[in-house]
């Protein structure tokens, strides 16, 4: 006798899939089956202790931050928080200065009288605590503002952007370039959101708590594309018609076998290193915008507050183009008009399946932070539950 199908299928158990699965199970009483391709939960937020006993983030550093009280309160059901505010510095020709470039960076780059003069001009033009995209700053006609704009563009923005995206800054969607603005402030925090922190135990434990529900069934090491078939307006799961809700959080082009061509992404190669020293660098993340093939180095003990002496673990990040190989992960959608139009071709294919929803960075081909994905999942749950 065949097992009865679930009410809902969720493809992927990162933030998007886990939140929507919990909501549908808990609030709507649905039987939810999650299919996850990897051997771990939590998506790119998965963390674990390495052989040195250091809690590391397998897919790069993740720092939670949000202005949404709803998101913070929701995730706080499954974790307590370490009070951590992320600070990043950039290695600019051997000198470390805060990133994003701010007034402290300005005074580090120029002698006092000139820095004070430029600071006053920036405050007069934009206002204290304002955030200005570098491409906007470069349009200023004032010679000294233009000079600092060129310094920032050439020493902090240009090469880093080329490494990260494989494109010049003006070839990338303005939403992406605006993510690291010039900050007219003395605040060195990378984020200014109301709620910031790191799960006190681990991200993995947060997800374990979220997925612990009697109506959620989780299957790891499963490629949903081999079990899910979309055909003539109908969804089939394991070759049986499925009339329930499907939430898909993976790459949408790959679900449809890239029939219109592959959507471009950037992937990352992570190189982890263990060092016999208590601290490797002064901050959690040091960016390398003018040299090195890697974009940044993260030292996890700064994030997790682990009090371990004589040993530490770092990771270096090397961006490159995503090719679709089995050992690659698509991390960053390359958003521009051409790629957005290609994505829309794939999204339109889902229109004939009324119970099929796309959710998250990969499925929507947008550069979301984790809190934005959680909020979208909560909003979608509101819509589906009514």
TrEMBL record:
Cofactor: FAD
UniProt cross-references to Pfam families, sorted A to Z: GLF, NAD_binding_8
Name of the featured protein: UDP-galactopyranose mutase
InterPro entries, sorted: UDP-GALP_mutase (IPR004379), UDP-GalPyranose_mutase_C (IPR015899)
Keyword terms: FAD, Flavoprotein, Isomerase
Any one GO molecular function term: flavin adenine dinucleotide binding
The organism's taxonomic lineage, starting at the top: Bacteria, Bacillati, Bacillota, Clostridia, Eubacteriales
GO CC annotation: cytosol
Species name: Desulfosporosinus acidiphilus (strain DSM 22704 / JCM 16185 / SJ4)
UDP-galactopyranose mutase C-terminal domain residues: 156-367
Family: Belongs to the UDP-galactopyranose/dTDP-fucopyranose mutase family.
